[in-house]
Amino acid sequence: MKNKKQSRVKIVLPVLFTFGASLMFFQADAQADSSQSADANTQVVATTDANTQNNNSQDLNVSTSQNSAQAQVYTQSAVAANQNTNDSNANNDGAVSLSDSAVQAAANKPVVETNPGYSTSQYNVTAQPVNAANGGNGAASLNTAGLTAAQKAFLDSIHDGAISTWKQYGVLPSLTAAQAIIESGWGQSSLASQYHNLFGIKGSYNGHSVTLPTREVYGGTSVMINDAFRAYENNSQSVQDHGYFLVANSRYHNLLWKTNYRDVTYLIRADGYATDPSYTTTLNSVIERYGLTAWDREAFDTNTGHVDDLSVRGDQLHVAGWHVASGTNGNMHHFIILLDGNTNQELYRQDISKTYRQDIQNLYSNTGAAGWSGFDISIPYTSAFAGRNITVVSRYTNDASGEQNGGRDMFFTPVSLDANVAALDKMSLDPTTGNININGWHAADNSLGKKYHYIIIFDGSKQTELGRYLVTNVARPDVASSFSGLYNAANSGFSLKLKFNPALAGDQIQVISRYTDDPAGNGNTVDYWFAPKTFNTNAAYLENFKINGDQLHISGWHAADQSVGKKYHYIIVFDKTTGKEISRYRVANKDREDIAKAQVNVYNAGQSGFDINVPLTAGMIGDQIQVISRYTDDPAGNGNTVDYWFAPQTFNQNLANLDQVTVENNQLDLAGWHATDQGINKPYHFIILYDWTTGKEVQRQLVENFARPDVANAFAVYNAEKSGFKVSLPVDSALSGHRLQVISRYSDSANGEGNHIDYWFEPINVTIK
């Protein structure tokens, strides 16, 4: 232990599929280390395996499929390095073993320093319209010359609501917009700017209102009152409520669904909305000045829709949604056409049976055959679709073959049928067997025709494959329920028991789930790379580290993942002050059910206890003494190790008390106790009487200690159990009135000199009669 080399620390960048986790290597001789911190029960050094690394915690359920050609080539070559299956590597408990040659090859490889890019697959089954006629242009379609940026933004904020109120209530968009501009002052009135109430409508909206002062006329007299006004979350909400206000009041029904703005502006004043005789003229002026009829034309010309579902259901491709368009009728053919979203190559077309959609009829009651705008078809899912981006085209046409002839087309945004979704439910070290239990699921649209499912174990630190295992998929109804449109979701589960190899301790272990058309696990593949995990938990606690008589009692627990294959457990007593090992003891581990429950996935947690008494020596007193718990593969306690260094402790307590002091008939009676760690190898106990007044020793007397179990129970100090003393000392009358001091001394000399430890009690005044 004397010539221990200093620990060498090497920082390396993240390796492939580490998701930015920094790694730290500890390279050190397999000896106790002296450069430790002083925090109680704190691990201050980890392991001394050649390949040891620390790892930041990672989310295991991260898709790391690589899209770039370079990354895919790398993946194939790296993973193809070893092709062992579970047939030849299975153990009696069903666990498979890593390839010995692959493990040895990995152990001889350096850490690869790389920082590759990643792509995460998305699961999506819906699509939006691309060329909708009412997609909304806001202020862009109007005459905005001379308007401020704030005024243009105001027009944008009411556009969607104005179009929607026409489709839902039949209120002309140009009227809605003009009224909003006039009555809110372009959204700048206090009621509009703070509460989005653009039309001054009183009352409450969904329970929300604000009370403000307002001027009203009663009996010809104008007075100020406080009244409740509706409060909205945004301007579009206010516009929608304005449309409902006109529908809910029957006097305005004569202006609904009218398409001539001059008719509507006349009727709204005539119906009593405003008393200003010039209200109609003002509305017309605003409509004409800014070209608000552009929104009317937009609302009248409808061509929109939505793909509600484009997904794989079992062996069928399901396509459902709706498409409503002006100028169409129920006699037209309705075709669904599927295109390759990248090349626009047509993959499929079908003249469908229309599906009734009451929800769409409610929204677009004045547009074509809106109620019969639904589509819902299922077609065989084949390799023509798998892995592609699919564009759905909905076409109304008079042509029986589906070519354009009247009617309208609607293109939707492409939906990928290359969804690749997975989760690693469990990747943990069995605390009893040392197996790595791996459970999860993997479903991928592009796994069609790839009937071989491999689980590949990959060393992310060394960038090399360690083994691959053909697995049988199991039912996962929970996945099918959550991802009903994902191919093979219902049968996507996998499970593997992997015998942990000690040579991999500290390396980043990655699981790759692969579907392939090749029995050997290569060929055409779809992979899912899970985030790496390093099995390096090293947990411990020192429950007792105290002197018990002439013994040092050491007990606690130590559980470590990297203790797999290290069957020898040592407790080392180390002098941090001198930097030398004092002693080491091989211990038998004890059952610790409490630790097994607290450290569920840590190897040997249930057998992690230790409890020993070691001889207390003089060399342990006064210095910083440290306990090291070590697992090793070497019977002598060296070799490949995993250590836990507990906080050092100094045994230098020196405690005492005078329980009784009496003077009678020229005799001083003393009783008390003195316990001190430094009393070891000091068998002579003297009580010395010292004259503090004159500065001279009066006398000393050798005493024989007696048992003090109360002191032993209260203090874990050497000789506390037998620390009591009782003595009677003769005193001369000449000492009356002097301050006397009692000293308790343990010495290695029969005369009370030599090496000794003293306890000086407080001086006392004595009166001798």
Keywords:
769 residues; alpha+beta; Immunoglobulin-like; Lysozyme; 5 domains; 5-stranded antiparallel beta sheet; amidase activity; MGlyc_endo_b_GlcNAc-like_dom; signal; Mannosyl-glycoprotein endo-beta-N-acetylglucosaminidase; hydrolase
Share of β-strand residues: 25-35%
Question: What is the CATH-assigned architecture of the largest domain?
Answer: Sandwich
Let me know the largest β-sheet. Answer: 5 strands, antiparallel
Low-confidence stretches: 1-40, 42-89, 115-119
Keywords: Hydrolase, Signal
Region (Disordered): 49-68
Signal peptide: 1-30
InterPro entries: Glycosyl_Hydrolase_73 (IPR051056), MGlyc_endo_b_GlcNAc-like_dom (IPR002901)
